[in-house]
Structure formats: C-alpha cells, structure tokens
Amino acid sequence: MTDETKKYVMMGIIVACLLLAGTIAYNSFSDGGGGGGTGDRQIALMCAECGGFEVSVDEYREMMAQQGPEAMMMMPGQMQAMECPKCGKKSCYMAQKCKKCENIFVFGQAKDQNFPDRCPKCKYSAIEERRNAR
Length: 134
Ligand SMILES: [Zn+2]
Ligand SMILES: [Zn+2]
What we know:
alpha+beta; 4-stranded antiparallel beta sheet; binds zinc ion
C-alpha cells in the first residue's frame, strides 16, 4: 500500500465514523418533537452502575471525544460500553427515553419484541407507531 492509498483508507474510516455518530445522534433526536434550538436536546444513556440518565448534546460530544479509538470503531448495532460521565466506569450504553412513560432503556432490550425501540415498561414503540400510521 502506498502512503497515498493509506491516507484515503484512513479518511474513509473517519468519514464512516462521523456518519455513524451522526446516525446515532439523528436517531436519538428525530423523535424529540418539533423544532426548537439544539440546546435543549438530550441524549439518553444507561449505566450499569448509575442507571438511566440524560446528558446534553454538548456533554455527549465531549464524552465521545474522550472515548478510546475502539469506541469509534464500533459497528452499527454493536453495543460498545462507554465511559460513564458520572461514575467513570466503562459500563455506559446508548439508550432511549420512552416518549410515553419516560422510562430510559437500551435499544433491543425487550428481546422478544420485533422493534428495538419498544419500551420494556409500557411496550410503546415509536417505530411501530410510525409504521401503523402509514
Ligand atoms: Zn455510571
Ligand atoms: Zn414506556
């Protein structure tokens, strides 16, 4: 491999990572409800130690910047533990806040369900609702 090729491969990986991060962020934001500024957007996280909580987009970005390169290499659908901003342990996962009951849960937690965003508490799924609305 020439240096030039390596450069392109690296750029490809970085772009893919950015796209992936954007997709995750978009998925979290897209159900946030109408417009508004970016300041009040929250990202739900689930820590094995601290339980479910939310951070602001800025806090989340800072958090991701502090994760090692292995966190950036995670594949879609693969759960990679992140360092918890509260307790500092590597036991924090991307989560979702239920629109109905405000329960914070990890994607795909309700294993017998066909929708990964179904709330294990009240069984509400935004994906399902969107599908049924069509
Ligand atoms: Zn924690
Ligand atoms: Zn719920």
